[in-house]
Amino acid sequence: MWPFSSKMRSRVAVVLHDGAVWHAYVFAPARPQWRLVARTTLAGQSRRVLPDVLLDFAEKHGARRVRLALPRNIHTLRTELPVDAEPEEVQTAMAFELSSETGDDTVARVVAAEAESFEMGASPATLLVASFDEETLERYAASCRNAGLIFDGTGAFELAVLGGHARNRPAARLLLLEPDAGFYVVPGTELNPMTVGSVALGMETVQHELDDERRERLQRRFALHQALPLAVWCVGGVNEVRRRQLQELVGMEAEIEFHDFERQTEDVARQMLAAVEAGVPAGGGALVGTRPPEKDPHRAGTWLFFVIVLATAIALGAHNHNLKSRLHGLQVKTEAWETISEKRKSLDAKYAGMRGEKTRCEEACELLAVRTPLPPGLQALLDSLDESMPEFTRVTTIQQMAGGGFEVRGHTAVQHRLKELLDSLAAGMQASGQTVVLRSQKQIEGTMEYEFVFAIGSTEDAP
User: Fold this and answer.
1) Is the pLDDT of residue 461 over 60?
2) Which end of the chain is less packed: N or C, by CB atoms within 10 Å?
3) CA pair distance 423, 413, nearest whole angstrom
């Protein structure tokens, strides 16, 4: 019985891109495996567009279908997909999971392979996935249609290499060195499941000196599993210099097996046929194609999915709006409270000043209430003395007399200046209605000073 499905009884073209060069193979169905019809390579062409030269090559050798394998970033998803889900529902779920995992909202189409299908000790319910933007897939499909070929889909180059490695060396580590990046796989052990990831190491990097920090990080990472043998696949070939550099980086005591990718491309290309033979997208030959036309836009599952998403979005939007409203209300209350607090502080300072002024006034009033007032005319006498006191003259006492008026006693060293002092005092006291009379003057014994006495009284009391 023919081992292939009816649609695969025609020749298939498998086109690989290893990061630098295009490789095209045409296979024909045969027993017990596919037979290689022709192969070719093409360098220097971008992988954004499927070269017409390769499509012409496929058509020339009788291929009816085209399958691609392109370098992609491989991610690990731990999820259980529903068994009865439609393919596009699975695509949507995987795209959502991968977008959540990577934070990339542009994920459109996802190629996925069950990690357990490689039989390298992976955890159950683990998928190895890579994403393609829908525009690129549509462009590849259009190029195939224009050439009269059927576009089966696109797979991940790294998964195809992993499929070939898993079949030959499942217990060994895999390090695929592409021109500008590396793909690293560690098989599972009794303690840890299989791990898959990228490394910041490519063939271009190997040709140049690594900085100490990156070299140390890579050496630590490789040293974690040094007990396991390592298969190194080198895109673009490998020479003794690169072998020595990689041996030093991985560890001199590690068991390393080098593979020149140019000699392994056919085996990798055959991985892209395995999934077709099995009839399911599993292993290294997993594919993803363009989005098929939707048969029924009112399908219950689709509507349910969108209703759930819409309800979730509405709930989140309402919750977000509620939080924003509460935040705005709290901000308004906070601003009002800050305004009131500033006003209260200003009024407190103002009232504190007023209370201080009041206290000072009360203290002044208390002082005035207990202070004895000056006798009438004393202030005028003091002012006149301050203005008319001659040189070398001083007042010793001012005494209030019993009948009113004042007696002023003093000393002077200039006797003839007493007349000036008398006239000045008389002029100054005249305004207050008082007269000044010189009662006595005499020389102080043993000195050159004279003692004088003035009597100051009202004009009515003057003799």
Assistant:
1) no
2) N
3) 18
3-class state of residue 247 by DSSP: helix
> H/E element holding 305?
helix 300-370
194: amino acid identity, one letter:
M
**Residue 188: closest CA among 232, 123, 125:** 123
Residue 98: how many other CB atoms lie within 10 Å: 20
What 8-state DSSP symbol labels residue 288?
Answer: B
**pLDDT tens digits for range 250-284:** 877 778 888 877 778 888 888 888 754 433 355 67
* Distance, first Cα to last Cα, the chain: 166
Q: Tell me which residue has tokens 């934070």.
A: 103
Average pLDDT over residues 280-290: 72
Buried b (16+ CB within 10 A) or exposed e, 370-407: eeeeeeebeebbeebbeebbeeebebeebeeeeeebbe
Compute the Cα dihedral for 229, 233, 234, 240 and give only its sign. Answer: positive
pLDDT of residue 146: 94
Task: Give the pLDDT of residue 297.
Answer: 57
Structure tokens at 332: 């308004």
Q: Write out the H or E segment, with its range, that includes residue 452.
A: strand 450-458
Give Cα separations from 337 to 329, 332, 342, 346, 349 (angstroms): 12, 9, 9, 14, 18
Query: From start to end of 47-200, where are the E strands?
Result: 63-70, 75-78, 109-114, 126-132, 150-156, 173-177, 182-186, 195-199
The closest alpha carbon to 171, from 185, 160, 184, 187, belongs to 187
Where b means 16+ CB within 10 Å and e means fewer, 264-276 reads bbebbbbbbbbbb
pTM given for the model: 0.60
Evaluate whether 129 touches 110 at the Cβ level (below 8 Å).
yes
H or E stretch at 360: helix 300-370
Q: Which pLDDT score, from 0 to 100, does residue 460 have? A: 52
Number of neighbours of residue 13 by Cβ within 10 angstroms = 27
Structure token pair of residue 8: 């695969």
